[in-house]
Amino acid sequence: MKDDGPPHVAMLATPGMGHLIPLAELAKRLAARHGATATLFTFASTASPTQRSILASLPPSISSHRLPPVDLSDLPRDSLIETLMSEECTRSLPALTGILGELKRTTRLVAFVADFFGADSLVAARDAGVARRCLFMPESLHALSLVLHLPELVVSIPGEFRDLVEPVRLPGCVPIPGPDMISPLQDRSSPAYGLMVRLAERCRAEADAFLINSFDAVEPEAAKVLRQPTPRRPPVYPIGPLIRTAECSGANAAAAPHSPPAACLEWLDEQPARSVIFVSFGSGGALPAEQMRELALGLELSEQRFLWVLRSPSDEDSLSDNYYDAASKKDPFVYLPGGFVERTKKTGFLVPSWAPQIQVLAHKATGGFLTHCGWNSILESLVHGVPMVAWPLFAEQRLNAVMLSEGAGAAIRLPEVKDKETIAAAVRKLMAGEGKGAVVRAKVAELQNAAAEGLREGGAATSSLDQFVENLVGEE
What we know:
The chain is an alpha/beta fold.
């Protein structure tokens, strides 16, 4: 390792914008506040125009490196996303080890940081001689707590989580109903189940520290528990919220692969303040055709203004069909109820596939967010003070919905059976600020202020990152 020069951090982002964006923001914060340089590794499978625009926007102190493509054609066609991500990482380890070895010779490489589904890469960093190997969780403190306790849970709970009568109770966490445990853990016979347990064990054995994209106020009891030093557990640093800013998002909007974002923003300019509910299921979510129809009818029945990022339905009930590609597979408009577009043309705006989410949430006309509860989207909504209606789809989104609605009180969660009446009622309640809607609005405003406070000089998140860097550099 070079003894001079700025500290250098290598980072690995597994597929998904919710993994790449917060790691890129972490790299930018390390560069701006601590003078560090960074290399951000990505996988060939996610070389989309959106990803390229994000990487192109990084400052000169942060370089990006796309790992060579690997063949995944031998995996079963119905493999879960979690399996695909982890397997792509595993097959990329030889290339990664070699590149990290070169970085160690040419930079002052102080640490390697990987997100959860890249946990196996911590071994590659160890083999390359990187002194500090850290895990970045682009999810909640609740998700980290589950990871830390998972090896014991699978022994103490012999049956399926989805069949549990009593919720799962983790220290400092909201009780989690069995069906709301993360989706790869719902079937013990699935390869993804064993994968999750193995990655959890790998994290505990190999990580020197956990960096978490969350903040104390949204999960106060979990933060209190996990901030306490514990024998045989690496220290935990809540450093969030790490999100892109509206300015950064706008600068790269022209590189977006779909319809011009200006159209929906211009429409928002014409709407009253806090009158529009933004409807989006993230960069990877898609609804079955029948649920898409009920959502359309529910929005119409609510009589509220809406901006809906429309995507063609998921095939064969796979809610994550669009995970690697946010573009609609088919024309989404043909799946809408007959006459819906004409009937709602004065109150609704439909955007195919993609919208500039940060700019939409930051807009004064946006007053609510019907969301899939991806952690990135939750943080973006809280930072901009936008209350939520929770409609989780896959991965850890149901866990997030429990924490968000039952713990933080920042969302109204839709019931399991989502018909047009229940959808309309939840949307009206949120947008009108009636009953629980008023409570949610007040709580989100409180969390917005807390998030901003934590990122200021001396705030909890800033101090946590400072402590992490101090420990890194101090132990060289």
